[in-house]
Write a structure and sequence with these properties.
The protein is mainly α. The protein has a single domain (about 20-165), classed as Four Helix Bundle (Hemerythrin (Met), subunit A) (Up-down Bundle). It has 5 helices and no strands. Helix 2 crosses helix 5 (about 160-180) and helix 3 packs antiparallel against helix 4 (about 120-155). The longest helix has about 35 residues, at about 120-155. The radius of gyration is 18 Å and the shape is elongated. The protein starts with 15 loop residues before the first helix and ends in an 8-residue tail after the last helix.
């Protein structure tokens, strides 16, 4: 059975760290979904195609928002606070750039499975690519969770964190607005 992703939503108040942690959880979940789509036995074609489409949609549409959240909202506010933190921020940005070809390979592998869901070659390539991506992303996420997340609470005031949350929400609203067409009465 392919992994079912949990719906969002919690009764806990949203904090900047809880939003970032939720993004990291989704990154891990969608990476796992890619691995499961590649390795599940006797899966029906529609299920595999749907899983591949969900993985593609997440990594091509949602993940870029998370990267922008870090690079446009967090990095500028944290840069210059300490030498160690600056090194971490530089490493994080370098890793973001290094991940781009991996996502390209993932999209190619997903496309091959979508074209031929039962192809052992296509699914083998997806499995290999998704496992490589999982290794790279785990290292990256652990770096952020161990060094960047504590820096957020240490260096950023609650007002600054609230401003960043507003920026995160605005980034996603802009995306939704751009993807919606004109309303039926506006033509």
């Amino acid at each position: 059975m392919l992994v079912k992703l949990k719906p969002g939503g919690s009764d806990e108040p949203e904090t900047l760290l809880s939003l970032l942690e939720a993004c990291h959880e989704r990154i891990r979940s969608f990476t796992l979904l890619a691995i499961e789509a590649a390795s599940v036995n006797e899966a029906d074609d529609e299920l595999l195609i749907d899983a591949c489409a969900r993985v593609r949609r997440y990594f091509s549409e949602a993940l870029p928002h998370h990267v922008a959240d870090e690079e446009e909202s967090l990095l500028p506010r944290l840069r210059g606070q300490s030498v160690e933190l600056d090194r971490t921020l530089e490493t994080m940005a370098d890793q973001h750039r290094a991940h781009e070809p991996l996502f390209g390979a993932l999209f190619d592998a997903l496309g091959a499975v979508e074209e031929a869901p039962q192809s052992p070659t296509a699914r083998g390539k997806l499995l290999e690519t998704a496992k490589t991506l999982q290794t790279e992303l785990d290292e990256h996420l652990e770096l952020e969770e161990s060094l960047l997340f504590p820096a957020v609470d240490h260096w950023l005031t609650s007002e600054t964190q609230a401003t960043i949350i507003d920026e995160l929400r605005l980034r996603r609203r802009r995306k939704r607005t751009r993807t919606k067409g004109p309303s039926p009465g506006s033509r």
